[in-house]
């Protein structure tokens, strides 16, 4: 690994895609610098905004909260928002909640839990129990829960934006999945800064957009951040994980390829795709007749799932 490129002390990490050896201190600077650069480039955050941070209890969102706290300090109001998904096996939800709560306490940041079971009388365990009522994989149902609740509660809390811990690897795997499945219209719906409408849809930002999973792993180790290390018992068969494996394989052979792909996508593919889809009718957002949330249909996906789970058979 050799010496740190910045200070010549013994290096702690080697960043393959940047061909860079760094000591712990300069690696922390590197992570803060990377997040700052992304935030500036995509005009994500302005001082004194109130931002909800989606905290799953895992390492990516722990890194996100920690970095935002270090970069902005008192100049940003951050609220950790955690969803208790009601996953009992291996105490998964219990441990995740504890991790997220402990982090906010340590950083002295506001924390809020949305308890799916208490608030809506549904949970991921009930999804498992009634799986014959769904044709979708667990993670797709869970994703609907998360998107809906994070949007609703961050708006209710009066936040300007919702920050999520999506990483470079997550974004590229979704792009790849959509390309391979021919869902080209979906390609314009991804990105680091997704504008909301200030009433039913919050603006969603991804400050870790250009940071890799390997880098967050090293950051949590160096900073000694506690996070949920166990794997979700319902994660088996998650479609994005196959694409992620593919990306790791490519990255191993061609370090930096993932980032290059994302940059070229933004520069060369996204503008003509946006122009094309804006030229067509575009998607019109209605208000769900049950909950008032955003939807392209009569009722939103969350209310539809809730109905499937709570109706009598
Ligand atoms: Fe939800 Fe799937 Fe993540 Fe488990 S792995 S928390 S089911 S999205
Ligand atoms: Zn150094
Ligand atoms: Zn609804």
Give a written overview of the molecule.
This protein is of the alpha/beta class. The chain has one domain: 3-Layer(aba) Sandwich (Rossmann fold), CATH 3.40.50. Helix content is 48%, strand content 12%. The protein is built from eleven helices and ten strands. The strands form three sheets. It has a six-stranded mixed beta sheet with strand order 5-4-3-6-8-7, with helices on both faces. Strands 1-2 form a two-stranded antiparallel ribbon. It has a two-stranded antiparallel sheet with strand order 9-10. A hairpin with a 6-residue loop joins strand 9 and strand 10. Helix 1 crosses helix 8 and helix 2 packs parallel to helix 3. It is globular and about 65 Å long. 35% of the residues are buried. Bound molecules: iron/sulfur cluster (SF4) and zinc ion (2 copies). The site of one zinc ion has 8 residues, from helix 1. One zinc ion binds next to helix 1.
